[in-house]
Every structure is written in structure tokens, then in C-alpha cells.
Fold:
Amino acid sequence: MTDKVRWDEFDKLHVVRRLRELVGKWWQIQINFTDTKGLLRGVPEGKFFNPLNPICKAVTEDNRGFEACRGTARQTTVEATRSKDARISRCHAGFSTVTVPIRVEGKYVGCVFGDGFLVADSAAEQKTRIKNYLERQFAGREQELNNYVEALPILSEKDIAYLTELIEMVVEEIIVSQKRVSDEQDKVGELSKELGTRYGFDRMIGKSAPMQDLYRLLDRVCDSDATVLINGENGTGKELIAKALHYNSKRKDKKFVVVNCGAFNENLLESELFGHAKGSFTGAIKDKKGLFEEADGGTLFLDEIGETSMSMQVKMLRVLQEGTFTPVGSTQIRKANVRILAATNRELQRMVKEGGFREDLFYRLNVINLLVPPLRERKEDIPILAEHFLNKFAKEAGYKKAVDKPTLERLMNHDWPGNVRELENEIERLCVLAGSDTEIYADLLSAHISDNAKNKFPGYRVAGKLKDALEDLEKQMIRDGLERTRWNKSKLAKELGISRAGLIMKVEKYGLDKRNIG
Ligand SMILES: Nc1ncnc2c1ncn2[C@@H]1O[C@H](COP(=O)(O)OP(=O)(O)OP(=O)(O)O)[C@@H](O)[C@H]1O
Ligand SMILES: [Mg+2]
Structure:
């Protein structure tokens, strides 16, 4: 439950309004709310409730009386913390008060109280007390005071029971409304958690829209046993994602085993994956467990799956279909319960068409497909990734460095063909080169990165009219953007923060028609 109590909302509840009206009209009793500390809620700061009888009005008009009233309200509501039911008590001036605690899902959130009345049994005594209390304030107006006191509402035992019942009804209504509000808040909280910007998943960093989509997908697939094929260019974080999937799954206490399918020749890969029996080939001096068995109960990550030979693909298909395999040189069929994750930077579908990859294996692997976007398509992640790596290397060095603005701009302008790994390496290199300096300047950047940034703006002028320079820059940005988004003008317009119509006008102005460019 959300802790926040919506006091202002109570006033708008129909039942509350109606009750205030009724008890006000019948008995001149005022209804108020206090929180757990006994502070009045739902009234403007520095104001007390709206006293209905002239005596209460007089009491609260006086500073001392006002403070005393607040003190009583505090005391009664704090006392109500311990009680479950309604309580009748006395205020400092001598009036009676009914207090009903509000408990939402067992938690005490405050009270509703009604006061400003006399109880039949003790009315005479109360009147005397009230007169004594106000004697000084009404000096010279004794008759007036007397008239007011005589006109005060006196409630019989039955009236009090009825009043209590009414207040209890209000409390119930408040509890229901509070629960509804808090349920809604919880729901909103969950939703915004789901929809709001996330800065990472496990050890992955990135807040760009494509990464948000990826996190949402990861949330959904990490607990399933389905095979996942992770596609993405070099250094985009495929292995990091595979790890995140394993360590956020129910298999996390078992092993995460990586096998690089491109690093072995066919025979070696087979024995690596499925194990071998003693004597099955020269050098096989004893039985050896394969990685499939090693990963039993856990996750096996088949990295560079696109590099697997056709005959090896057949064997892999069998494991994926039946969960069984045979160690090299053995006749014994083995079984292992393994979740398979695979990754490649190659376009498997194209390989299938060209005959380089088995279609059946492709479909087996591709149950869930995760596409990791290249860094150049999510450049807004560059600053936080850079910061992340600066922190990482700061841990190693013992103190943190920062990149200055021009350096960051160049990092943003570079296209990062080696993706996050390239950025990580560049930051590491910068940290080393900067030596004991805490600030990293652009002249330390690798030449291809700073050159690239310059090349991006061939028309970049150091002299001449600002307007022309800006137009050159604008033209270049639109041209690059069109290529990058494959002429998706709506997408590019959004990226550039202009309207689609505005972009089309500029495309015409600069003659950036598709036919003119490529
Ligand atoms: N989103 C990210 N947040 C933080 N670090 C990342 C992120 N993506 C990649 N990295 C880091 O970049 C480096 C490369 O990542 P990883 O090895 O997972 O990429 P890959 O896609 O498997 O690359 P390759 O295709 O070359 O095998 C790692 O050091 C990894 O920690
Ligand atoms: Mg990798």
C-alpha cells in the first residue's frame, strides 16, 4: 500500500459532505480529520475546523484557545492509536468529543472526530466548566455567554451512539476510497516502472528507446526456458545480454557455460560440447564431460553460432530437439537439461537462403529473437556509457576522470563500428593517456575518432557568415539522418525535433532527394 493519505480527497467524498451537513444542522457538531501525529488535515494551514457553535468559535478566535484546541486534537488522536473503536473524551474547554480511528489495511492513518457538544449525564458540570474557561474572554458580556452556553447541544446516550455510527460510516467510506487510491497509485507506480525510462538491465547500461524495448523483452524472457537467438554487430553486448538472461533466471544458481563455436575445428567442437570417451582419439586418455553436461540445470551460451559447420549443425539440432547427445567415441546416449542461448553477428536468415545454415536449426534457435541495436543508432546512450566506463576505470585507478565537452561531442559524432566495445576501449585508452590529469581533452582521442568528427562536416567553416555555416551543418545532418534512417522521414523529423512537413521542405531546399544521394 502507498503510505500517502489523500486527506484533500476526503472532503470531496459524498458521505463526508453529507455527514458534515447533518451533524452540523442537528447538533452543531463539527467533523474534522487528524493524521497519526494528531495534526489537523484537510483544512488550510494555520486554521482550525469550522466551529459551528458560538462558544467554539470564540475559543478558537483566541490564540491561546486555538493552540489549546490543537493540543487536545493532538492528544486525542495520538491516544486513539492504541484503540480500535470509537472513544468519547473531553476537550480542554470542557466539550465532549467522539474520535474514531481510521485503519487502512491494519495501518493506523489518523482519526475522524466530531466535537463541540455536551453529554446529557454530565451537561451541568460541562456548562460550569465552559463558563469558567471563558469567563475572562467574556468579561462584561456574561449574559451573552450564558445564553450561548444554555443553547449548546446536549446529546443523549442514544444520540451519541447514533453520532458514533455516522462517523464510523464515514471512516469506512474513507478506508474504501483510500484503498482505491492506493491501489491506483500502486498500479500507476508499476506501470511507470514498466514504461518509464530505465537506465539498465543487470549490468547493461543504456536509456535510449531501442534499449528500453530490449529491457522489456528481457524482462519477459528471462524466466522462460525458451531458446533465444541474440543478433547484433560486434561489440554490441550480446554476451552481456546472455549473462543477464542467465543471472536473472531461475537457473542462476547453476552454471552459465560459454562455448565459442567459431574457435574450434569441427572435431574439437564436438568433443568440447558433447564430451568424449577414453581412447576415442589420440590424446583422449580418459572420459571427459562435455559442456552440455557441464551446464546441466543451467545455461549454455553458443556464441558465434553462425560459424558452425553443417555437420555440427545436425548434431546441435538433435540436442535442441531431443535434449540428448552422444559423447565422441561412445555409444551411450546422454541427456542434459540445458537452456540454450545463441548469438551471432551474421544474418542467419540470409545464410539459410544461401545454404550455409540449416533452416531447421535456425528455427529451433530463433524461438525468441533479440536484436541488439548498433551504438550509432542509439547515440544518446554514449554519454552514460562513457560515464559508466569512466567510473569503471576510476575504480581501478583510485580516482575519477571526466571528459571535457569537445571530447564528448567527438565521441557522439563517431559512428562506432566496433560499438560498445570500441567505446570502452577508447575510454580506457584515454584514461591511460591522461595520466594523472583528472580532465580528458579531445587532443588525446584516437585519430580516427577525432578525424571522423571533422569529416562528418566537410563544409564546416571557420570563417564566413554564420547563416551559411548553419545551413551547411543542417544539410549535412539531414543527409546523414536520411541515410541512417533509410529515408524514414517521420523518424528523422522526431530525432531532429522538427515537424515532418518542415523536414520535407528542408529536403527539397537542399536537394536531398533519394535519387540525388544514393
Ligand atoms: N549496454 C552495455 N552496457 C555496458 N557495457 C556494455 C554494454 N554493451 C556492451 N558492453 C561492454 O562492451 C564489451 C563488449 O560486449 P560483449 O562482449 O557482450 O559484446 P558482443 O556483442 O558479444 O561482441 P562480439 O560480437 O564481438 O562477440 C563488454 O566489455 C561489455 O561489458
Ligand atoms: Mg561476443
In short: DSSP finds 22 helices and 19 strands in the chain.
